[in-house]
Design the sequence.
């Protein structure tokens, strides 16, 4: 690989250690000028680390980097920007309380007088850029008020304003609707036409196949494949990513729905920002079925799960569990009534990271008679026995139940939560993003557990941002849009149709 | 030891300083000091320190900084003095517990103000407890300088509490009985020490063996997780502060009933509640650690007096030492410096492992805007 | 009630309002420092200690150099050095910023009293003569305006400087490129870093600024309001400044309003002979004010998003 002509980026032998992790292991990565190059791999495969090195946020232990054929040493984002490299991060680098203009200008602000920020100049510069690339944006809007799609657009304009020719996009579609994703792809194609080079990080294989020219696959810090998009397919990439053949579907028998477990009627609630998030949600969930919620994130799914679990107050409507009104119950009473909840935020909400597995295994049940004498004094022996049982039954990989949750892998952390919530034999299981950020092996295991729970008669409500997961697990799919359930359809509904329903399109139809 | 360097720089005799420290625990005293007396003084000093240390360590576990142990201790002394003087006719078996309980209630209420403000409107407890410290300080001045507790004829002191309401000392208060070469009355070690040990034990039991302690620690580590578990975060914050205040108030009551017998201007410059912060941090929030750290600070203080005469040092050096200890704990310097040695470059960035936040307002009252 | 009449009479006295502004400036300077520091994302409860150190060295330097201006500069440097410790500990070593702040305050309390011995030989600092104090300046013409003239234009020179710094802090924070960068670092350091802004340099600068301002406040306290150094002479004013900053929602002018309220509390104490209440009870007023302010008004205030969070490059 001595010929570097035509290569926009050429990284050779990149190695990076983090404490206990080899994030990049002699990685070779090259991107041609004017192509869309996809970098794929599971969470923790080292994609983001590699790109953070290219952008100067992280420094590699060893290796060489060539940009447009010239060897460079990138010591910080400033260097990367000077070399024409721009990065759109997975978690946007935007400041909600700043205006769009201030966000875009930050670091390269136009100045007048001694050091005054030149608002008029900023506005003009942004108008010029947005016109050139067809990306409409109002420079004076407050960033926090914009929808996610526009925030991402602002990120792209920010990068272009800095004169980037090589754009790195880290999981850009994770927060977008299918329609927004399509728009983004249009923008990316236009950018390539005007001479830009794009690196597209993703784990969504369908998108990768749709948008990229070439693909680099990473697994556990190593590059395991260089592919040409036209000559490959989803199965081949998935197998490379995981290192073995992957079952892309879930094996399950038809559901045998029983009586109504949860009846939700006209439920309303507000978000953390005190704006209405649920605007009258109604549905019925039966024992022995999995009801999946499809929807673009931020349409009220999180708030709905929290209200149902008792950690958020409803502002109106009713929820009943087997005929008993549980609308105003707090989390503890609901848990005692048989409602289990796998929250979407594993590290912050579902676990106390500094607590041991044993301590986490009773989170929310520390006053249950089984675990405390007169609700006051903890029964340490009973707690340890219980935790050991869970570790065994749910295959949690850990040397001991005294290990702090912080020191477990993401998959095992999630298993601790799943074990705790399922281990109490709930009547209703609320599962929010149960496999987010978890490796494929753990995903398969958790999916099997959810189906098993259903087969044993529990009512399961599943919220997931991964449409594939919703479609493969659910017995019925409820589509949620702007705080309402717009329709309930069967699990075989085509993805395109679901995508349309999720964005408020499509005719209303009766309950399937 | 940085402490030794500071001592050297200021031209005093460093060996003398360390020797003073050791003398504080009863060994290696120079000519003139009585080891037994020094040890006695150390214990007298560490007794309220253990109890007040608990008052800082417990909220710390719940993610709360109780900088107000001093103020809580002061109102504890006030309550103890009021009970000990106004109900002086009661027999000791009734009066002594009443004094201690009054001190605990007063301390609990004082801390409870900060707890309620934190739990309801999110006022940061560091600021509120400090304000309450100053209010307590000026309240004491008011009470014993021209105020209702001033003893007739005294300028800035209250009347002494009834003799029946005093904690017994281990040695009889006799000027004729000679112990360790000195009259036994100079050994002020009193039974409050047992109460202090009991407080440390209660603290450990509460924290590790009860559901309340479990919930308190959960609140301290992750309020979101605590809410998810069904724990009422505001209630836990208030209860924690009430218990902590009770411990600090108890420390004050012990100090009156065991040592001082009356309120004097000595309390205008008392620092027990502040030393307790260093004790709690140095003791790493464990009961045994608190007892050991209290022993160190007790020795520093009683040794400080020795240092002053022997090594030409002001006992205020103790404050400087405390600050250095705090810095080193805060910065986890040992770990940091160790990580610096191999390549002399910044410690590797751990992905997404930020230390807990210390925003000036609670999340409960003012959720910081999520970055989209 | 005669007490009410007393208070009414008191409120019409220009001297009370003059004293209010004079006292408010002791809070205002560290509060401006706090605003700067916390806007950059570093929680600073160490203004108390920085101010105390400043006061000590102002008095010390003035007694030896016989020049209040040089003494003021020495005080600011002393405050700045304390701030540097806080900055290194909390930015470089990513320590808990509240623990570090408490340590600074304890350190300052011990250091200043400890140094009295070696530096003066006796436990008494000595007094600065009146002509070597920071001067009071009556602005020509304006100071002759009835009532307002006395309140606003017959003040110590530091008061005028503080008011200029108030406007300056506001303009820098909200109108300039530097201010935009400071606020971006306090809101979202990762975003600032990826935009090529040096997060650490901005934070060091902001914390040092808070030290310089607190040191200046210390000089004002030591060689303008008073003429000597007394153990713990700041008496929690740094913490009150912190409360003023929170009350003012991390804005300079908001903090100034709060400082005036606290200043009034202090000023009333000076006029205690007007109202027949124990001076010790009056002394509690500013602290009780602070509690009420924190209880009543502040609940909804939102600090900078990254306030108190150490920045770890490359983290998300």
Sequence:
């Amino acid at each position: 690989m001595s010929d570097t002509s035509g290569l926009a980026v050429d990284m050779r032998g990149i190695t990076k250690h983090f404490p206990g992790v080899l994030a990049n292991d002699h990685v070779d990565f090259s991107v041609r000028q004017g192509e869309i190059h996809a970098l794929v791999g599971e969470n923790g495969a080292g994609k983001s680390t590699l790109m953070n090195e290219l952008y100067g946020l992280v420094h590699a232990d060893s290796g060489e980097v060539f940009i447009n054929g010239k060897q460079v040493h990138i010591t910080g984002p400033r260097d990367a920007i000077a070399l024409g490299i721009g990065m759109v991060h997975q978690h946007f680098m935007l400041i909600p309380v700043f205006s769009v203009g201030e966000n875009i200008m930050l670091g390269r602000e136009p100045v007048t007088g001694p050091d005054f920020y030149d608002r008029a100049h900023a506005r003009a510069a942004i108008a010029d850029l947005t016109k050139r690339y067809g990306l409409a944006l109002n420079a004076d809007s407050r960033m926090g008020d914009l929808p996610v799609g526009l925030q991402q657009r602002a990120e792209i304009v920010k990068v272009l304003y800095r004169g980037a020719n090589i754009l790195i996009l880290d999981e850009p579609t994770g927060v977008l609707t299918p329609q927004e994703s399509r728009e983004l792809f249009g923008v990316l194609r236009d950018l390539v036409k005007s001479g830009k080079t794009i690196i597209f990080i993703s784990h969504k294989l369908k998108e990768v196949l749709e948008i990229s020219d070439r693909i680099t696959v990473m697994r556990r810090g190593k590059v395991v494949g260089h592919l040409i998009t036209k000559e490959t397919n989803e199965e081949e990439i998935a197998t490379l990513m995981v290192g073995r053949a992957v079952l892309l579907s879930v094996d399950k028998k038809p559901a045998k729905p029983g009586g109504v477990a949860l009846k939700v009627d006209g439920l309303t609630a507000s978000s953390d920002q005190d704006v209405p998030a649920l605007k009258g949600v109604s549905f019925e969930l039966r024992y022995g079925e999995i009801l999946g919620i499809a929807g673009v994130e931020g349409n009220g799914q999180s708030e709905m799960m929290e209200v149902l679990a008792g950690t958020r107050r409803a502002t109106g409507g009713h929820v009943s569990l087997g005929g008993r009104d549980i609308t105003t119950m707090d989390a503890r009473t609901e848990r005692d009534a048989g409602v289990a909840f796998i929250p979407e935020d594993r590290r912050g909400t579902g676990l106390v990271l500094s607590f041991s597995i044993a301590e986490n295994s009773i989170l929310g049940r520390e006053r249950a008679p089984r675990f405390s004498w007169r609700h006051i004094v903890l029964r340490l022996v009973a707690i340890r026995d219980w935790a050991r049982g869970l570790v065994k039954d749910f295959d949690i990989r850990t040397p001991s139940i005294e290990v702090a949750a912080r020191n477990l892998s993401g998959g095992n952390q999630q298993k601790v939560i799943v074990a705790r919530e399922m281990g109490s034999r709930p009547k209703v299981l609320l599962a929010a993003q149960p496999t987010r950020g978890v490796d494929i092996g753990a995903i398969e295991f958790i999916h099997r557990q959810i189906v098993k729970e259903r087969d044993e008669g529990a009512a399961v409500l599943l919220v997931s941002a991964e449409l594939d997961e919703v479609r493969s697990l659910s017995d019925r799919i409820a589509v949620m849009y702007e705080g309402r359930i717009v329709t309930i359809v069967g699990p075989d509904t085509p993805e395109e149709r679901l995508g349309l329903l999720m964005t408020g399109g499509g005719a209303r139809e009766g309950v399937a | 030891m940085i402490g030794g360097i500071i001592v050297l720089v200021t031209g005093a005799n460093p060996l003398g300083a360390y020797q003073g420290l050791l003398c504080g625990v009863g060994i290696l005293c120079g000519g003139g000091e009585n080891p037994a007396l020094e040890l006695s003084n150390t214990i007298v000093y560490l007794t309220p320190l253990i109890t007040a240390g608990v008052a800082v360590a417990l909220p710390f576990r719940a993610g709360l900084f109780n900088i107000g142990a001093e103020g809580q201790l002061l109102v504890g002394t006030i309550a103890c003095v009021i009970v000990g003087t106004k109900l002086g006719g009661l027999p000791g078996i009734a009066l002594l517990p009443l004094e201690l309980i009054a001190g605990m209630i007063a301390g609990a209420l004082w801390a409870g103000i900060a707890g309620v403000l934190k739990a309801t409107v999110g006022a940061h407890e560091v600021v509120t407890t400090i304000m309450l410290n100053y209010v307590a300080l000026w309240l004491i001045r008011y009470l014993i300088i021209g105020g209702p507790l001033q003893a007739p004829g005294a300028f800035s002191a209250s009347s002494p509490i009834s003799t029946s309401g005093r904690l017994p000392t281990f040695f009889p208060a006799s000027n004729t009985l000679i112990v360790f070469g000195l009259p036994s009355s100079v050994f002020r070690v009193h039974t409050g020490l047992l109460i202090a040990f009991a407080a440390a034990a209660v603290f450990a039991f509460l924290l590790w063996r009860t559901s309340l302690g479990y919930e308190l620690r959960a609140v301290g580590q992750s309020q979101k997780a605590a809410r998810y578990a069904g724990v009422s975060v505001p209630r836990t914050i208030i209860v924690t502060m009430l218990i902590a205040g009770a411990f600090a108030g108890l420390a004050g009551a012990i100090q009156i009933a065991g040592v001082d017998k009356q309120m004097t201007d000595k309390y205008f410059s008392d620092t027990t509640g502040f030393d307790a912060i260093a004790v709690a941090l140095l003791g790493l929030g464990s009961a045994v650690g608190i007892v050991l750290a209290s022993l160190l600070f007790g020795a520093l203080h009683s040794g400080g007096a020795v240092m002053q005469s022997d090594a030409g040092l002001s006992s205020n050096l103790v404050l400087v030492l405390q600050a250095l200890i705090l810095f080193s704990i805060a910065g986890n310097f040992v770990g940091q410096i160790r990580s610096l040695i191999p390549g002399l470059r910044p410690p590797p960035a751990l992905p997404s492992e930020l230390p807990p936040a210390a925003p000036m307002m609670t999340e409960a009252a003012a959720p910081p805007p999520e970055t989209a | 009630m005669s007490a009410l009449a007393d208070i009414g009479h008191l409120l019409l006295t220009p001297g009370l309002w003059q004293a209010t502004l004079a006292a408010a400036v002791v809070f205002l300077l560290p509060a401006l420092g706090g605003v700067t520091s916390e806007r950059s994302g570093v929680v600073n409860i160490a203004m108390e200690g920085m101010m105390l150190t400043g006061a000590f060295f102002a008095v010390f330097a003035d007694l030896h150099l016989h020049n209040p201006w040089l003494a003021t500069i020495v005080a600011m440097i002393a405050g700045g050095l304390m701030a540097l410790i806080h900055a290194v500990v909390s930015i470089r070593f990513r320590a808990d910023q509240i623990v570090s702040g408490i340590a600074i305050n304890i350190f300052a309390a011990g250091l200043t009293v400890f140094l009295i011995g070696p530096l003066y030989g006796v436990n008494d600092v000595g007094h600065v003569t009146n002509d070597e104090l920071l001067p009071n300046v009556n602005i020509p013409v304006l100071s002759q305006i009835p009532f307002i003239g006395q309140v606003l234009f017959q003040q110590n020179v530091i008061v005028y400087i503080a008011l200029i710094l108030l406007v300056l802090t506001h303009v820098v924070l909200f109108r300039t490129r530097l201010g935009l960068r400071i606020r971006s670092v306090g809101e979202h350091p990762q975003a600032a870093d990826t935009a090529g802004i040096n997060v650490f340099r901005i934070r060091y600068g902001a914390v040092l600024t808070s030290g310089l301002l607190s040191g200046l406040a210390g000089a004002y306290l030591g060689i303008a309001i008073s003429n000597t150094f007394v153990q713990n002479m700041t008496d929690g004013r740094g913490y009150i400044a912190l409360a003023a900053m929170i009350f003012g929602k991390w804005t300079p002018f908001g903090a100034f309003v709060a400082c005036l309220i606290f200043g009034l509390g202090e000023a009333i104490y000076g006029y205690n002979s007007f109202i027949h209440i124990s001076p010790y009870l009056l002394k509690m007023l500013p602290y009780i004010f602070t509690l009420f302010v924190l209880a009543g008004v502040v609940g909804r205030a939102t600090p900078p998003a990254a306030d108190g969070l150490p920045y770890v490059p490359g983290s998300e």
In short: The interface with chain C takes residues 52, 55, 57-58, 76-78, 81, 87, 89-91, 93-98, 102-103, 106-109, 111, 114-117, 158 of chain A (CB under 8 Å). Chain A is about 30% helix and 25% strand. The first strand of chain A starts at residue 7 and ends at 18.
